Amino acid sequence: MFETCPKEAPFLSHTGELFKQVDGVAMGSLLGVLFANMYMAHVKEKDFQHHSTPGLYARYIDDIFITSSTDEDANSLMTALQNNSFLTFTCERSNQRRLPFSDLEITKDENDFRTKVYTKATNIRRCLIARGEFTAAYKLSVAAAYINGVVTHCNSWTEAHRKFDCIRQLLTNSGYPDHMIGGLIKKKLVQYTTPAQTLDSQGHMITIYHRNNYHDRYRKNVMPLKVT
């Protein structure tokens, strides 16, 4: 089963031919991210048995963010990671205390980090046109993705408000109505500042995830919660 799910399950090409993955995990397989995380956790565990832990270590799949006192420390860790895996790593250092990491831009202050949405210089600031031949739900998800990125990536309200203004202008230029943009921003901020919570039988606070995040098959079986 372990071999069959990620590799041997055939997939259909646009020409109608069936193909089978012979190396690695099939593109688009949900198991790909799971296996990648498991492997990188194993590599980290092996590496830190013989290497000192950096001041800060954060990882998204195989992208790793660390802080180090010297270039030698960073190079030493990179070499150790390569020796304990079959991967080849490259190293990008901060420039003027700033570093892009995935879709974040991280800035180092004296005692803390500031984060915001990273926008490449080549970004022409266009998005899906609202009058295009797409479903309403898809258009809504496009706008929501921009707004959700601000809420999750900006750790200062000043930067968040600045980015909201940029996104509002971008979506307006693309034909999205003002009431939809404002409603989405309000909804995301409410979800972020007041997460849905309730108490369990022992009086402990627990988080109840929004039912829209459930899979369709599971959502039908979820009974409404009653809090007394």
List keywords for this structure.
228 residues; 2 domains; 3-stranded antiparallel β-sheet; two-stranded antiparallel ribbon; 15% strand; disordered C terminus
Structure characterization notes:
The chain is of the alpha+beta class. The chain has two domains: 33-93; 119-228, no CATH class. 40% of the residues lie in helices and 15% in strands. The chain has seven helices and nine strands. It has helices at 4-8, 30-47, 71-83, 136-153, 157-173, 178-193, 216-219, and strands at 11-12, 18-19, 56-60, 63-67, 98-101, 104-108, 113-117, 197-199, 205-207. A three-stranded antiparallel sheet has the order 5-6-7. The chain has a two-stranded antiparallel sheet with strand order 1-2. Strands 3-4 form a two-stranded antiparallel sheet. Strand 5 (98-101) and strand 6 form a beta hairpin. The protein is globular and about 55 Å long.
Distance between the termini: 45 Å
What count of domains describes the coordinates? 2
Rg (C-alpha, Å): 22 Å
Note the main sheet: 3 strands, antiparallel
Portion in strands: 5-15%
Give average pLDDT, whole number. Answer: 81
SSE-based structural type: alpha+beta
Number of strands: 9
User: How does the overall form come out from the CA principal axes?
Assistant: globular
Q: Please give the count of helices.
A: 7
Lateral strand order in the biggest sheet:
5-6-7
User: In which range does the helix fraction lie?
Assistant: 25-40%
Poorly predicted regions: 211-216, 222-228
Topology order in helix (H) and strand (E) letters: HEEHEEHEEEHHHEEH
